Amino acid sequence: MTQVDMLYRMKETHLFDNFTVLKNDLLPYRNLTSRIVLTSTMGKMQVSIKERSDGKIGIDLGLKKLTSIPEEICYNSDMQQCTWIDLSRNKLESLDNLELLIHLQEVYIGRVMEHGKLYGNTFSKIPNQLYQLPFLKILDMSANKLQEIPPAIVNLRHIEVLSLARNHLRELPKELEQLRSLKTLYLDGNLLTELPEFLSRCHSIRRLSVRNNKINKIPDEFPLMEGLEILNLHCNELTALPENMGEFMSLVILIISQNKLRGLPSSMEAISTLEVLGLELNAFTFMPVCIHKMQGLRMLSLSFNEIDEVADDIGQLKHLDRLWLEGNKIDNFPEALPLAAELDDLRVGDNGFKELPDSIGQLYGMRDLSVNNLGLYRLPETFEWLYNLRTLNISDNNLSVFPEEILKLSCIRELQCMGNGLRSIPDKICSLPNLQMLNLRRNSLRELPARFSDLSNLLIVDLSHNQFRDFPLSLCDTVSLQYVDLSDCHISTIPNEIGKLRNVQSLILNRNTFDRLPSTIYGLVNLSELRFADNGVSALPPEIVRLSKVSVIECTNNPMEDPNLAIIEAGMNCIKEYFQRKLFSVQEGRPAFHMDVSAIRAAVGTL
Questions:
Q1: Is the dihedral of CA 305, 378, 489, 522 positive or negative?
Q2: What is the C-alpha separation between 156 and 105, in angstroms, rounded?
Q3: Element (DSSP H or E) covering residue 578
């Protein structure tokens, strides 16, 4: 589990984030591993032919800073046999000679998001060479600068997957309906204001994604797309749907979150194939009646609307396994929920009710439960019957005493319990054998149980914003930990025992009061991220250079002198060079050592 994975698991997500099948990133090459089968030198450039895990051979020209495709590639007999080419993350101005690679089935020339920035090509029109590839099935031109799709698109006769996401498109050409093989169309992040009527005749399309546009109208003919299985309308400006929405014959996933809907057409109850319905972040004040009759529904999100009541009819959804209702105005816990026998994931936090009924214990099969921000003072005794729970969020309530009922949930893996005013944690929490993530931030804890290290599977612990003052020593014996956050805990000393945390990848100690890091920090051999901003540290221990995996050191607002902040921010190589020169200076008997970052950088550059 990487640090990014860990942080992702600790944040709240919406329904859209949980279905990667809806995302443009599903384009095949991005999810397949590959191996190099041939490398050729062409001019000053190494060109690799790779075999993907699906057996297809292709050319990897990504991230080569190309402005054009080298001519010798297109005339090379080995290259001409390839079926895919990756040209992303370049600076291409043309695709001259690409048509010579006549066996190409997949072309990727979209830009790629890295570290929050887009890198790559910026075509303002679809290059003509693409129309001359007779077997082209997949084309990714996402995140370019296309302002229109020309009528010549009709020449892509065999295209199956077309991504034109994140461009500047305002309308779609009628010629799209002539692409009889088109199955997947991504138009996310453009400037579309409506969907054209002719899409209803695109019967081959199975997946259509137009999220993050400005669509305010859907034509009445649209539900006649008889082959459509996945429709993503997330983040548009829809206020209503066509009355004949029930005419969709094959729709399985429908995401209309973050629009302006207040109701649904009653005809939608006839969509017998529908399994996933995402309606969060709209303007619903009640749960549409037609939902109760969608007997095939498995996943439903109505989070962050204005709903004040859930009718007992919700219990009729016998196959429902994921229900998200958080962020509404519901005054009473839906008593009929236990009738939804397959319910696996329930989110009802941030609503108006202040207690959970005893009947919640009847949801025996539940694995994920969020009841945060409800003002709860206790959990019902029947809560311990939820013995299948894997993740539990009880954050931001009034549970000033840790609920004993949780201590009997032996399957629990992730526990979010922040913002409750807890002053202590019972020893019995250490008997939860499967606990992997524990979030106790924003409480009033002063110590951890002495047996804390018994949590032998614990990977992530967030103890920030508590009242420890002394670093909890039992934490140092929990050697399984990979992520530790003790920010804002008034800690005045970091103990030598911290060196025992050999598996920690991220150590966050911001805004405390300590003035030094112990030399034993070298024991954190897997550390990649160290943050101790806003403390009183003036020097790094020289032993830090032994931490070869460290890529991030954040120490702003410390009186750093040895080395100074500029050298630290320049990276671990500069820090190593600094201490090497300092050691040499001491060995030579020099009275003082001074080295600015420019000299250090210069020295590193010569290594």
A1: negative
A2: 11
A3: helix 572-587
458 touches 479 (CB < 8 A): no
The answer to whether the CB of 536 falls within 8 A of the CB of 514 is: yes
Please give the pLDDT value at position 596. 53
Question: Computed from CA positions of residues 448, 451, 455, 458, in that sequence, does the dihedral angle turn out positive or negative?
Answer: positive
CA distance 103 to 82: 6
In contact, 159 and 139? CB cutoff 8 Å? yes
- CB distance 331 to 308 below 8 Å: yes
The reported pLDDT for the residue numbered 340 is 67
Q: Residue 535 has what DSSP assignment? A: S
pLDDT band at residue 583 using 50, 70 and 90 as cut-offs? confident
Taking the CB of residue 54, how many other CB atoms lie within 10 A of it? 12
Residues 6+ apart with CB under 8 A from 197: 219, 221, 222
- Grouping H, G, I as helix, E, B as strand and the rest as coil, residue 42 is strand
Number of H helices, E strands in the chain: 6, 26
Q: How far apart are CA 308 and CA 545, in angstroms?
A: 58
Say yes or no to pLDDT of 558 above 90: yes
Q: Report the alpha-carbon distance of residue 239 to residue 216 in Å, rounded.
A: 7
Least confident of 329-338, 530-539, 582-591: 582-591
**How far is CA 121 from its chain centroid?**
25
Task: Report the run of H or E that residue 585 belongs to, with start and end.
Answer: helix 572-587
pLDDT at 414 exceeding the cut of 80 = yes
Peptide bond before 472: cis, by omega within 30 degrees of 0? no
Supply φ then ψ for residue 195, to 5 degrees.
-95, 130
Give the amino acid at 258: Q
β pairing state of 253-255 and 230-232: parallel
- The single residue listed with the structure tokens 């290059």 is 127
Q: Whole-prediction pTM value?
A: 0.86
Q: Which residues contact 345 (CB under 8 A, 6 or more apart)?
A: 321, 322, 323, 324, 366, 367, 368, 369
| pLDDT of the residue at 38 | 77
Residue count of the chain: 607
CA proximity to 106, closest of 81, 59, 139: 139
* Two tokens, residue 292: 């109760």
CA distance 224 to 240: 17
